[in-house]
Amino acid sequence: MLDIKYVREHLEEVIERLNTRNGDYSYLREIPVLDEKRRALIKEGDELKAKRNSDSKLIGTYKKEGKDTTELMAGIQKIKDRIPAIDTELEKIDNQIREMLLKTPNLPDKSLPIGKDDTFNTEVRRWGEPRKFDFEPLSHWDLGTKLGYFDFERGVKVAGPRFTFYKGAFAKLERSIMMLMLDTHTLESGYTEILPPYLVNTASMYGTGQLPKFAEDAYNIKDSDLWLISTAEIPVTNYFRDEILSADQLPTKFCAYSSCFRGEAGSAGRDTRGIIRQHQFQKVELVKFVKPEDSWDALESLTRDAEKILQKLELPYHVVTLSTGDVGFSSAKTYDIEVWLPSYNSYKEISSCSNFLDYQARRMNIRFRRDKDSKPELVHTLNGSGLAIGRTVAAVIENYQNADGTITVPEALRKYMGTDLIK
Q1: Structural domain total, the chain
Q2: pLDDT tens for residues 74-113?
Q3: Which domain holds residue 76?
Q4: Is residue 219 left, alpha or beta, with left meaning phi > 0 and alpha meaning psi from -120 to 50?
Q5: Distances (CA, A) of 193 to 180, 245, 252
Q6: Is residue 108 part of a domain?
Q7: Could you tell me the pTM of the whole model?
Q8: Residue 123 and residue 233 in one domain
Q9: pLDDT tens digits for 300-352?
Q10: Within this chain, do residues 15 and 153 fall inside the same structural domain, yes or no?
Q11: 254, 194 contact by CB (below 8 A)
């Protein structure tokens, strides 16, 4: 959530920057008007309460002196009647302002390329070269079906479109990739592993910014306050909600393996084959809580931590900075890591690494003290996929396939797989 003070003092700049996200945020001009009414009501309420207190003392004096208190009593009664009305008006205005701020995305950082969609994203770096095959390579869905390790038909029968059974070597491949990711992040990059709930309450969904904007893409448990998570970012970032941390608790770095559940609203016709866009998939998530002055360096290191997995697997990829029209709702800046997929003859997103600055922390009320006497400040939060496991499976299958239909197991996975060849 944006800082209302910053919005009020830099209103036109805020609207101009937000409008580069392909929206119309002129409604924010109502916030200073509402805020002025709010402050006037607070002032009136404070003055009335002060008068009520002074008049109450005066009544005691009048009674001791035998003076008539009728007029004072009537005045106090009017004040008592007015204060609840002020409180009601204040609550209404506070709700209006909060609803506006909750539906307003984060300010895109000024370093982002300005553009309406992903065609304006800019490449930062690339690693590795796409493999040149001396045979016609198969897609991961065709090769997986041919080997009998993907069962798409039964996935549809049991659950519906965009669900898949992994079997045998591919189930083990998914598990092995997950173990490589967790071992790398915890043993080499200093993250603490955490196993989160897969269901969260509505407050948690609002905290990270999934609500109100993405309600139609989320799975809500009927007649309950619970939602299936679309990413482990939600429970893990909410871990410190409504808490004040000490300075020595920062940075805190968590990595979490979880299943993720997405309705994929608006994705009809996109990536309909294979496992690239599923309603249920597994992911390892990286989450950081840092001091404000450290968050930009933390974004760079977070992105490098995610890249390390692809380098270990020797999969070609590139990193792009998302444009203002493509960056996520809660993010100030995002790097997408995109892995090379031969079936698409292009790079495909496998991780998004984002700096949210204090946007999520303000929604969740996560603060820290620099020392015991200092005023609490908002932390900065970051997260990134480290990585999406299903898409990593697809990338390994396609990039490591052989002419005879077998798949060479990447060196980094062999200790987990117990073999160097899938056949």
Answers
A1: 2
A2: 888 999 899 999 999 999 999 999 999 999 999 999 999 9
A3: 4-103
A4: beta
A5: 13, 19, 11
A6: no
A7: 0.93
A8: yes
A9: 999 999 999 999 999 999 999 999 999 999 999 999 999 999 999 999 999 99
A10: no
A11: yes
